[in-house]
Amino acid sequence: MYRHLMTGVAVAALLLGATGAFADQPKQGGSMIVTYKDDVSTLDPAIGYDWQNWSMIKSLYSRLMDYKPGTTELTPDLAESYSISSDGLTYTFKLRQGVKFHNGRVMTADDVAYSYNRAVDPKTQSPGQGFFKAIAGYDDMAAGKATSLSGVKVIDPNTIAITLSKPDATFLQVVALNFASVVAKEDVAQYGADYGHHPDGTGAFYVDHWTLGQELEFKRNPDYYVKGTPYLDEIDFKIGAEPLTALLQLQKGQVDILGDGIPPAKFLEVMNDPEQKKLVVQGAQLETSYLTMKTTMKPFDNVKVRQAVNMAINKDRIIKIINGRAVPATQPLPPGMPGYDKDFKGYAYDPAKAQELLKEANYDTSQSFDLYVYNTDPNPRIAQAIQQDLAAVGMKANIKSLDQANIIAAGGEPDQAPMIWSGGMGWIADFPDPSDFYGPILGCSSAVKGGWNWALYCNKTVEAEAAKADAMVAPDQQQARADLWKKIFTVDIMADAPWAPVFHEERYTMHTARIAGADNLFVDPVHIPVNYNAVYATDAQ
Amino acid sequence: MPLYIVRRLLQSLLILFGITVVTFILLYLLPADPVRQIAGRSATAATVESIRHQLGLDLPLYQQYGRYLWGLLHGDLGRSYLQKTDVATLIWSRLPATLLLMVGAIACELALGLTMGLFAALKRGSALDQGLMLISFVGVSAPQFVVGILLLYVFAVQLGWFPIGGYGHFSNLVLPALTLGFLGAGWYSRMMRSSMIDVLRQDYVRTARSKGLSRARVLFGHAVPNAILPIVAMIGIDIGVFMSGIVVVESVFGWPGIGQLAWQAIQRVDIPIIMGVTLISALAIVLGNLLADLVTPLIDPRIKLQ
Amino acid sequence: MTALEAGSAAPLSVWARLLRRPLAVAGLVVIVVTVLAAVLAPWITPYPPDQQFFDGLTIEGAPLPPNGQYLFGTDLLGRDLLSRLVFGAQTSLLIGVVANGIAVLIGATIGILAGYFRGFIGAVLMRFTDLMMAFPALLLAIVLAATFKPSLWIVALVIAMVNWVQIARVIFTETRSLAERDFVVAERSLGAGSGRILTRHILPHLVPTLLVYSTLGISTTVLLEATLSYLGVGVQPPTPSWGNIIFENQTYFSSAPWLVFIPGAAIIVLALAFNLVGDALRDVLDPTQQGHH
Question: Could you tell me the pTM of the whole model?
Answer without folding.
Answer: 0.83
